[in-house]
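Consider this pair:
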Amino acid sequence: KAAEAAQLGIDFRFAVSFPVSADIAPVDICGVLANQIDNAFDACRQMPPSYLREVKITIKHVENFVFFRVENTVDHNPFENNSSLSSTKTDTSAQHGLGLKNIRDITDKYSGFLRNEYKSGLFISVASFCYETLGTQNLIPVFSDIAFLLYLTLY
């Protein structure tokens, strides 16, 4: 993805703190990050060439939670005319609009959440995972709430 970013003229930065012991399937990690990064690149492609194109990835872990945060510059608030962030791609040769659904499905699988927001010229996508429930199956429904509270303290 770094090579693709360079070809697109996107300043691509990342910082990763990921626990080796995290019990998250590699296919799920790739599914979330690939969709988040592809969406960020698509948004940057839509910006005029003179605009700053930037994608920053931060992966942090706190307690039993991992947060994937992908920020990208945008030239407008994407929620203004598209509150559900439906795909705006016009190419009919491929399926579009499944990326956010796939991310939500994966984060739900790990009692996490997906949060997308616009703030000061940035689109911010955060996906969370609870990677170790420590035998507390009866608490799984509240892990998403706990993860969200941790997220608020991080950013």
Observations:
- Residues 138-142 have pLDDT under 50 and may be disordered.
- Residues 8 and 57 are 17 Å apart (CA to CA).
